[in-house]
Every structure is written in structure tokens, then in C-alpha cells.
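Response to reviewer comment R2.3. The reviewers asked that we include at least one raw input/output pair. We reproduce the pair for 2-dehydro-3-deoxyphosphooctonate aldolase here without editing.
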Amino acid sequence: MKKTTFLIALLISVTACVSTKSTLKNVDDNAPDLVLSKNNTFVIKEFSKDKKYGYNPDYPINIFYRNTKDEALNEVRFLNALAGPNGEKIIYTRLETCCPFPTKRSDMGAGFLNVYELKWEGQKKPVILYLNIYEKGVLMVPMGLSLKKENN
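Raw output as returned:
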């Protein structure tokens, strides 16, 4: 009986502990501030060479914001700057919020990733991207995507 009680208590204490260590790999508080183009999209000058960037929840696209009113706006500014691999117009849909992680930039002490599905004409399989509005990082175009051409 004592052994069973001990095992139950041990199991409860182990499952009750939540990690306070972030698993995010590409946070960079020294990343340059985001700049807007004349089309109200982010100016992105770099292309990622890491196939995990944006496609893996541990390597999300970090789109830092200053307050909660900017959350969707900054995601739209990033996604509207992108195009398919050959310049195709993309259509994106927010699928879910997932993957909690600790952050000092949230009143709750935790942040979440927003998961988007991207589609374009001629595509075989939709692309899934993970966006993080809580942390900073160098903003890049994920592998397999391109930048939308600017309208002059």
C-alpha cells in the first residue's frame, strides 16, 4: 500500500512540473527592428538557408510586437510579403494556436505560436508555418518561398 501511494505521489509530482525553459532556437533580441514597405508589408532582405526555419515549432518566424493590438497586423504584414516559389500569389489561413513556451513578453508568462497554412495555384501540398509574435529574430523568407514583387 505504501509503495502504491508513493508511486502515485511521484507520478503526480512529475506530471505537475512544467518546464520553464524555452525550446525556441532562433530568438535574437539584437535582431534589427522590422521595417515597413510602401505596400504595408515587412521589408525582408534575407532568405533562410535552414529548412527548419518557420516549418518547425522550435524554429518559428519571430515577429515581435509591442502590444496585443498588433498581433494579427504583424502576421499579415509578414505573410503579405511572401509569394510561392515562382512568385505565385499565396492564400493563407490561420489554423490554430499551439506550442506554449515561457516568455517575459507576456502578462501570462507564456507565449504561443500561431500556425498558418499557405496555398497557391499548382501546389501539391499546403505549407504550414509557425509564427511567434512574442520574441524577436532576424526576419527571413522560409525555404521554398519567395518575396512578392513590389508594385511600382
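The chain has two helices and eight strands. The two ends are 78 Å apart (CA to CA). Further pairs are available on request from the corresponding author.
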